[in-house]
Amino acid sequence: MKRIFYEGRINGTFTLDGDVFHYLKNVVRAKEGDALGVLTPSQYAKCTIAEMGKRSASVRADMVRDAKRHDYRLKVYQCLLKREYMDFALEKYSELGATEIIPVVSSRSLNELKDKTRERFTDIAVKAVLQSENEQLPIIGDSVDISDITPDGTENVVFYERAETVGMPAVSKDMCIVIGPEGGFTAEEVAMLALKGFNVVKPIEQILKAETASVVFTGYVRMMQDNI
Prior knowledge:
Blueprint: E1 2-5, E2 13-17, H1 18-27, E3 35-39, E4 43-52, E5 56-66, E6 73-79, H2 83-96, E7 100-105, H3 115-132, E8 139-140, E9 144-145, E10 155-159, E11 174-179, H4 187-196, E12 199-201, H5 210-225
Parallel strand pairs: 1-3, 6-7, 6-11, 7-8, 7-9, 10-11, 10-12
Antiparallel strand pairs: 2-5, 3-4, 4-5
Helix pairs in contact: 2-3, 2-5
């Protein structure tokens, strides 16, 4: 079933136009009578395309319910990466079901998050949520300096490739994790995060690229959360 995101409130029959209509008509070649899954910020609906016009589509809601919400919390602090790598990481966090994603400025990261970048992040997150059949969009926060990171989960972990020993992090339904930039954290940054209350963890011997770490470590946490 084709799935789209709709900002409005679903009630009976409604109209899709603009970019959403363009996607239906020109990208997925939707036709009258096609089934359509529609996700809003608070609802999910199974719908039928009643009419395809030249500039808009009329859609009938056959079933409407509240969107499913995760039974866990996963806040990811991600140090800002180059565009292609940051986009990749954010896409994967959204697919995996992170509930909050906070860009971080650190010594070795990029140091600016523009408004247009925020808009792109939101678009990437929406597409990833639809593809993975999640129904809860992650909150994408404003960028923060690494000194302002707060360990506010039941378990708080910073993944650090230069830690002395290898070990797995403790996982709970309420997690806060920190993933470093290209080039990694400085020793001073890790010491600061440890003093704040983060558990410093090195899960494997290998040194991973930042974008690889984003998938591997977040994927592990999410698999464990779903099996607690």
